[in-house]
Amino acid sequence: MPPIAPRSSQLSTIPAGAGKGDATPNRRCVLCGGAALAMVLVSPAARAEDEDPARAKRPQAGDLLAFFEGDRAGKIIKPDDLKLGGPPVLAWPMDPSSKALRDGSRFNQVLLIRLDPNALEANEKPHAAEGIVGFSAICTHAQCTVAGWVQDKQVFQCPCHQSRYDPKQDARVVFGPAPRALPALPLKLDGGNLLVAGPFIGRIGMARPGMG
C-alpha cells in the first residue's frame, strides 16, 4: 500500500532553497508507512463503516469540502480559510445533505489552494473559484499522497519520489518521475460556500486498468 497522509499531521512545507533532486525520504513518508499499518489493524466495525458505498463515492457536484486533518478535521472549509499563495489544504469532499465525509477511499483526497486568478493558465480558469483551485492529492507516479509544498517555487511536492506539480499550470508535472498532471477538481462559490462543481477531470493515480 502506498503511503497516505495521516490525519494527525500537517501538510509539510519544504524550505526555500531545498534541492529538488534530494531523494531522501522525509519524516512524513515514515509517518505514512505507520498510518498504512494502522489501517490494517482497525476494528471490524470501523472497516464496515469504511465500506459504506456513499463514503467511497467520488466527489459530486454540490459537495462541500472539509479539513482532512488537524484541530479542524471534518469542519467545512470556507474560502477565507485558504491563504493567497498557500500553503495548500488537504480536504475530503462532504455530502451537503447528510454532512457525511466521502472518506471511504483515499482516492477522494483533494488538494486546495488559493492563487492569484491572473496567474492561472487560461484552460485552468474555468474550473477555478476566484483563484481557488482543487486537484486530486494522489500522485500519478506511485499513488502516494502529495503532501509537500515548496513555498518559494509555489509547487506541490510528493514526499515519496519528489515529483513536483505546478498548480498555476493545472498541476502539470515540472519535476520528477510522475507521468502526468494531477486531475483537477472543478470548484465554484455559492452563497459564500466553496463547493465542488463537477467530477475530477482525468484519471486518479496511476494509469493502470482497474485502478481508481
Notes on the protein architecture:
The protein has helices spanning 27-40, 44-50, 53-56, and strands at residues 12-14, 64-67, 89-94, 110-114, 132-136, 148-150, 155-157, 164-166, 172-175, 184-185, 187-190, 193-196. The chain is α+β, with helices and mostly antiparallel strands and 212 residues long. The protein has one domain: Rieske [2Fe-2S] iron-sulphur domain (Rieske Iron-sulfur Protein, 3-layer Sandwich), CATH 2.102.10. A 5-stranded mixed β-sheet has the order 1-6-7-8-9, with no helix packed on it. A 5-stranded antiparallel β-sheet has the order 2-3-4-5-10, with no helix packed on it. The longest helix has 14 residues, at 27-40.
